[in-house]
């Protein structure tokens, strides 16, 4: 998938959202906040590995720490994972609603 295809896909996804939902990249989140994974757009091999670790669409993740370089530490299903910038750029999240 090239950059223009990825941008077009992102625009289509954002149009489907309710106006009150905000979609952001994982590294843009706030430390200590729980989010819901909205989409995972990385290479297939990485996507499969993330799925094996429990990072799927609609999965709650808590942002534990982040560095200025884009590296993040998340907590997903009771396990802490460190993800580099390329991977954290490819994971889109939305804020978790209290009843989720």
Automatic annotation (TrEMBL):
Q: Which residues cross the membrane?
A: none
Keyword check for Iron, yes or no.
yes
Q: Which SUPFAM superfamilies match?
A: C-terminal domain of transcriptional repressors
Give start and end of each Ferrous iron transporter FeoA-like domain: 24-95
Per UniProt, the keywords (alphabetical) are: Iron
- Keyword Translocase present in the record's keywords: the answer is no
List the InterPro entries hit by this protein, alphabetically: Fe-transptr_FeoA-like, FeoA_core_dom, Transcriptional_repressor_C
Name recorded for this polypeptide: FeoA family protein
What species was this sequence derived from? Lacrimispora saccharolytica (strain ATCC 35040 / DSM 2544 / NRCC 2533 / WM1)
């Amino acid at each position: 998938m090239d950059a223009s295809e990825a941008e077009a896909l992102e625009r289509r996804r954002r149009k489907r959202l309710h106006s009150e939902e905000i979609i952001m990249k994982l590294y843009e989140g706030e430390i200590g906040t729980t989010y819901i994974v909205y989409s995972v757009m990385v290479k297939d091999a990485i996507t499969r590995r993330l799925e094996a670790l429990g990072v799927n669409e609609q999965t709650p993740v808590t942002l534990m720490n982040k560095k200025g370089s884009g590296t993040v530490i998340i907590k997903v299903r009771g396990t802490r994972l460190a993800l580099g910038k390329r991977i954290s750029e490819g994971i889109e999240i939305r804020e978790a609603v209290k009843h989720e």
